[in-house]
Amino acid sequence: MFDLDIAIEMWLKQLRKHRAFDDGEIREMELHLRDHIDDLMSDGIVAQEAFEQAVSEFGEIPVMAQEEFRTQKRRFSIKSLLFSTMLNNYTKTSLRRLLKHPVSSVINILGIAIAIGICVLVYSFGYWIEKTDQHHENKDNVYLTTAFINRNGKMQQWGISPRPLGEMMKDDFHQIDNICRVKEQNVVIKLEDKVFNEKTTLVDPSYLEMFTFPLEKGYPSSLTDNSSIILSAEMAKKYFGENDPIGEDLLLIVSGEETKLFKVTGVAEEFPSTHAIDFDFLVNYQNSSWAIPNYDQDDWTQTIGATLVQVKDPEDLEVVKAGMEKYKVLQNEAMEDWKVADFKFEPLATLYQNSPDINKTISSRHYKTNKMAHSILTILAIFMLALASVNYINISIATSAKRLKEIALRKTIGANRMMLIFQHLVENILTTVLALVLGMAFGKFILVPWFEYQNGYSSGFHFLDVNLWLYLGAVMLVTALISGLYPSLYISSFQAVNIFRGKIKFGKGNLVTRGLLGFQLILSGILIVCAIMFTQNSVYLQERSWGYQPNSVLHAEVDDFTMYDKLRNKIQQYPNVELVSGGSDHIGVHKSLKVLKKQDKQYEISSIAVDANYLELMGVEVLAGRDFMKSPTADKFSIIVNETFMNQLSLANPIDEEFEIDTAKYTIVGVAKDFHFNSFSSEIEPIIFMLVAEDKYNSLAFKVAKGTEMESLQNLKNEWASLFPETPFRGGLQGDVWGEYFSSLEWHGEFWRMIAYVTVFMAALGLFGLISLNVSGRVKEFSIKKVLGARVSHLGKNIMKDYMWLFTISIILGAPISYYLVEFFFDTVYTYHVPSNFGSVLMSGIILIVVLWTVVSILLVNVAKSNPVNGLKEE
């Protein structure tokens, strides 16, 4: 007859023969062995077989002793706990415990997984920001020539440069290996019956030597041919599909008149996902003499998009910097209104990071806004990790009520506090590892693709990135320690004698648990308020007045007055057209810069040059003075300014004030109400209206009867196609000018609503786990009350009472925090936004209370169905 206790004692006797194990370690191993045997027997395995299987998993005793001798001395230490057999046993028992408590395990793993998924998103977004334009091999030797110019009393850095600068620098400095001039040109490209408006880039052949843009087909040297054109991969697919474009001809048309046939001699590879500088079409810079009327290479009054220089050694640039003074003199003599204070060379390696401070740069200017968005995502990830960790802490402490006898037994047979702490941390690390796997999958395959699609970029990050694993390893370690350290210290502090006497109570006196739950509610409230405010802000901005009337207005861009006149004559024939206007600029589409001089001061001001009908057509209100007179010559030297112009120049009564513009005297005849030329993300700027000669018309606008906008747009497109079959249509509804901006606002609202849903879900998970454990610990109490006639509603009130005061205090404390934090956040992110209000804070509190009520209601259903007789049998 097999006797389990005798068998275990014989196994322990074998252990004691080896000096590698002290009494404490032997007692700990006995406890693990008995736990493992109990688990196997509960699965239906007989005692003898369970004993043999458990002993075999421990391994051969001599091998265990030999390994122990190599890793520790006789005294107990943390290192001895890392002994492979013991750690393996901890992991197995931890895994079994997770499977035995699926509800709490799922809550913990799912909460941490969601937080880690957001951490993966944070990493991918940061990876994209910091890796942008770092693929260029010569990034440390190529520099953009920029100039500092005083505009409106402020020193501004500009990325454009004088046209002759590059060639002169190449001739004057032997330290410069290469120079490259860059100029973007709007063109029409025609291929058979395909006609598109495009932007081609005029560059020197050195462009493909400075920048790392490998060609999939063709050779970079082909750019030396003035009749060659190199396409991006996107443009090659757009025009030629899957066919080989090499050797094909493209017709380029400039200003609707000048044409030139170019042969495709190269196709670039797909640009890296982390790039800010790119191109659609490359042609030799010498084509400037064809594309630009009256082109003069030595004209210092004209600028180009960029002048890039390449040096072998960055130290050589000091010589170049010292010799830039003569170019300042040439520039300042040619353009007194555009005097250069200093030149600076911006390295390509950091150009993207510095571009937000550079006007008209060839790189993207979104670095600061992207960094701000990344900071917000980082804070959000920290919030989510905090929510998940608080959930884990509370549930761990609550579930420890079911492990009191286990803890007492371990302590009775010799397990010390460090062993219990280590065991609990192993369980926590296992939970975090499982959450890490799930969170990585959630982030990589769901969250990141969705975020990139909505924002129109591709980060290109991958799981082979070593930094990603270091980052996730740090996140996992910090999360495991934060969420597991306090529960392990708390649980291991219980005294065995108090447990056996029933003096350990849960759920009523643990202020730390209640405090953590309150902290979780405050964080949840903040995130819910953010979601509500972002949704309200999207509505607010969509309904915000532009300061003019964009409804029922259509516009079209034309090349010259001839096109304007033909199109106007056709449009005016439609009975629903109420008013037509022309000009060289148009609100939301194009404006010019003018330098206004008064006495010894000068101001650089945006200008909209139009005809006398324009303000009436656009619904721009004149607050003081008058509108332009209809006579074509009466207001030739008159301007109308907006309120911001008047305020910034401190003009109490601006009417009849005079300013010099282009050597002529102009008089202010009216003050227009402020309006938004740009989207609501930019502040309203000083602006002037002035009349323009018909030979400079580049824009047509007209107003139609309300309700006929879409019909009129189709009529406009039909007339355009009939009049200008070889010119792509450029125009549309005025209300669609900022369509992408409003789409981004809607995306902001959608993103934060998703965050709110996740927050509510995590709060509900945590509450469900905590309250369900609370209810399960009060089965006998509820059973007695049911026998005595208590209604389920009474039991619900009893449960709600335990949490309502905590919810109330958390909402009261969280309300001002949410209010001022969101207000600060909106002031930082938005130029114009919905005013902060406590309504959103109140709604957040209501949502959290509804979550509590829902969780309690779900649990009450189980209480109502339970048999009180079974409940009275509970210990």
Low-confidence stretches: 73-82
Q: Based on DSSP secondary structure assignment, what is the total number of beta strands?
A: 25
- Largest sheet data: 6 strands, mixed, barrel
Helix-and-strand structural type: alpha+beta
- The percentage of residues in β strands lies in 15-25%
Tell me the radius of gyration. 37 Å
Mean pLDDT: 86
Q: Portion of residues in helices?
A: 40-55%
Distance from N terminus to C terminus (CA atoms, Å) equals 34 Å
Tell me the overall shape. Answer: elongated
Count of DSSP helices? Answer: 29
Strands in their spatial order, largest beta sheet:
4-5-10-7-9-8
Overview of this structure, please?
By secondary structure, the chain is α+β, with helices and mostly antiparallel strands. It contains 29 helices and 25 strands. The strands form four sheets. A six-stranded mixed beta barrel has the order 4-5-10-7-9-8. A six-stranded mixed beta barrel has the order 17-18-23-20-22-21. The chain has a four-stranded antiparallel β-sheet with strand order 16-24-15-25. A hairpin with a 2-residue loop joins strand 21 and strand 22. Helix 1 (4-16) runs antiparallel to helix 2 (23-42) and helix 27 runs antiparallel to helix 28 (838-865). It is elongated and about 115 Å long.
